[in-house]
Amino acid sequence: MKKVIELQNIRRNFQVGDEIVHALRGISFTIYEGEFVTIMGTSGSGKSTLLNTLGCLDTPTSGEYFLDGISVRTMSKSARAILRNRKIGFVFQNYNLLPKTTAVENVELPLMYNPDINSAERKKRAIKALQDVGLGNRLEHKSNQMSGGQMQRVAIARALVNNPAVILADEATGNLDSRTSFEILVLFQQLHAEGRTIIFVTHNPDLIQYSSRNIRLRDGKVIEDSINKNIMSAAEALAAMPKPEDDE
Ligand SMILES: Nc1ncnc2c1ncn2[C@@H]1O[C@H](COP(=O)(O)OP(=O)(O)O)[C@@H](O)[C@H]1O
Ligand SMILES: [Mg+2]
């Protein structure tokens, strides 16, 4: 199996006044291609710090991080930015879409930094990614003309468009009602079934039944790392939920 992510004894300290906050206290794990990993933990356990590390947005105080076999520590800042753009698709709780910008334009964005892809190819790939997340009929809608669930689909299409090694999601269903959350979860399970590697950070313990593996953090340490042998179907859970009366 191919290693997509390997962390070796990652520590992250923050100096706050005279004190040192130990946000990550020696984290080690390996994530293989095709895994759907939830990272669970209460507030303050280190989830965001860990995700920022995985996303090459933050540099650990010590330890080694290999992304797709490449040591992130040894890279220059600009090389790291390119690596991040090519290898990682981000999905955030608040979608992070450009306002008053169409779905296609938002999804094209990560491809702008790639000189090998011209504008026609960019548009073609963006449309394909939007069709893949079920938004083929909303291509020209602007972000302010869409629902939360639709905006999150656009964000997922944007994360997919570069064909990244891994998708990092930070509380991706955190702003959505439970029905819409499950629709997004169905989409993540579809991506997992297609062989995508997904890391999904959440404080919601209900979600871990739907991933293939769960890593639990407490006080900056891994306190549990378990494979889920009985993955629940988000589609079935969704079908069993009551439909709102105004549903089309
Ligand atoms: N930039 C920072 N400066 C100082 N302390 C920080 C910083 N970021 C996080 N921390 C501290 O590190 C710990 C873990 O925070 P965080 O990773 O945000 O946890 P979570 O996302 O699980 O809520 C907390 O005690 C937090 O206060
Ligand atoms: Mg957080």
TrEMBL record:
<dbReference type="InterPro" id="IPR027417">
    <property type="entry name" value="P-loop_NTPase"/>
</dbReference>
<dbReference type="GO" id="GO:0005886">
    <property type="term" value="C:plasma membrane"/>
</dbReference>
<dbReference type="GO" id="GO:0098796">
    <property type="term" value="C:membrane protein complex"/>
</dbReference>
<dbReference type="InterPro" id="IPR015854">
    <property type="entry name" value="ABC_transpr_LolD-like"/>
</dbReference>
<dbReference type="GO" id="GO:0022857">
    <property type="term" value="F:transmembrane transporter activity"/>
</dbReference>
<dbReference type="GO" id="GO:0016887">
    <property type="term" value="F:ATP hydrolysis activity"/>
</dbReference>
<feature type="domain" description="ABC transporter">
    <location>
        <begin position="5"/>
        <end position="244"/>
    </location>
</feature>
<keyword id="KW-0813">Transport</keyword>
<dbReference type="Pfam" id="PF00005">
    <property type="entry name" value="ABC_tran"/>
</dbReference>
<dbReference type="InterPro" id="IPR017911">
    <property type="entry name" value="MacB-like_ATP-bd"/>
</dbReference>
<dbReference type="InterPro" id="IPR003439">
    <property type="entry name" value="ABC_transporter-like_ATP-bd"/>
</dbReference>
<protein>
    <submittedName>
        <fullName>Putative ABC transport system ATP-binding protein</fullName>
    </submittedName>
</protein>
<comment type="similarity">
    <text>Belongs to the ABC transporter superfamily. Macrolide exporter (TC 3.A.1.122) family.</text>
</comment>
<dbReference type="InterPro" id="IPR017871">
    <property type="entry name" value="ABC_transporter-like_CS"/>
</dbReference>
<dbReference type="GO" id="GO:0005524">
    <property type="term" value="F:ATP binding"/>
</dbReference>
<dbReference type="InterPro" id="IPR003593">
    <property type="entry name" value="AAA+_ATPase"/>
</dbReference>
<keyword id="KW-0547">Nucleotide-binding</keyword>
<keyword id="KW-0067">ATP-binding</keyword>
